[in-house]
Design brief:
GO terms for molecular function: toxin transmembrane transporter activity. With about 400 residues, the chain is mainly α. About 80% of the residues lie in helices and about 5% in strands.
Length: about 400
Amino acid sequence: MTEQGGIRKSLLISLALHLLIGVVLLVGIDFSAPKRPAQAVSIIEATMIDDGMVAAQAERLAEMQAKQERARAAEQASTDAVQKAAEDAERLAEQQQAAKEAERLAEQQKALAAQQTKAENERQQVVEQQRKAQEAQKAAEAKKQAEAKAAEAQKQAEAKAAEAKALAAKKQAEAEAKKQADAKAAEAKKQADAKAEEAKKQAEAKAAEAKKQAEAKAAEAKKQAEAKAAEAKKQAEAKAAEAKKQAEAKAAEAKKQADAKAAEAKKQADAKAAEARNKAEAEQALKDLEALMGSETGGASSPPAASKGDFDRQVALITAAIKRNWLVSSTMTGKKCVINIRVASDGLILKIGEGSGDRAVCQSAAIAIRKTGTLPMPKDPVLIKRFQDINIELIPE
């Protein structure tokens, strides 16, 4: 801040000097009127104008104006120079201040980095101390566990030694006891043999009696078992007969249902085959009729009068054309529909009526007519007019 104040003070002194120079220049200009030469004043009653004096006065005025212009220009230049110097000085001061600020920030960064490095070193020291403490704790824990294992091993060894001692004492006691027991057993065996002989005699007598009773009971049980077996056999035969009867009934029902399904499938297959055959026959008939009509009308120079046979043939052609696009089902068998069709002279179908008859047949027939699009038309103008608005009877086949 002290250096910046010194720069501003220098700028102010320079500005004051420039202003002082400008004031001196302005004061040095003579703004007084030009002096006239001293002459004897004579009173003349006429007014005289000296052209040279006027020219001199004008020249002096022009010179004074030029000096004033130069002075103003010098003052302006001085002001601009002072202002530029002030701006340069201020810019320099700002740059110096910025440099100082940058240097201060660098010092702060350096100090912060040093602090961070110190903190990192301290943290690493703490981590190292913690690691050493953990290792010491683990070593103490391992030592404690080793001591505990050693104590446990010693305890187990002492227990095994005591157990071995007890086992030896037990074996000795068992040997003594066995000796005594053998003596007692020999005496007991002797007594037991005597008792066994007596018991054997008694047992044989009891066994003979028991055998006799058992044989009697066995005969009775056999008799009862044979009776039960006969009854069970009778019931089993009755159940088997009933099960066989039910199985035969189920088999008959299953066969009946299978036969019915087979018959229905055969019926549907026959219907589809008949439908395909009818369509093929209708197409062939249509082709034959078209060939017939072409041969009948081809050689005539003028169309003959329409007859019932021509009308019927044309109806057959139209019906065959519709049936080629007609999908029928077995439920439509034996039903029919009479439907009105309006066509253009070239056979283009214009309108299809609702039809009278079975509803499903009429709907299916209308779809077939719509798919046909254009009906075959006769060449006879009279027949054409008759077929432009006609009722067609359609029977599913």
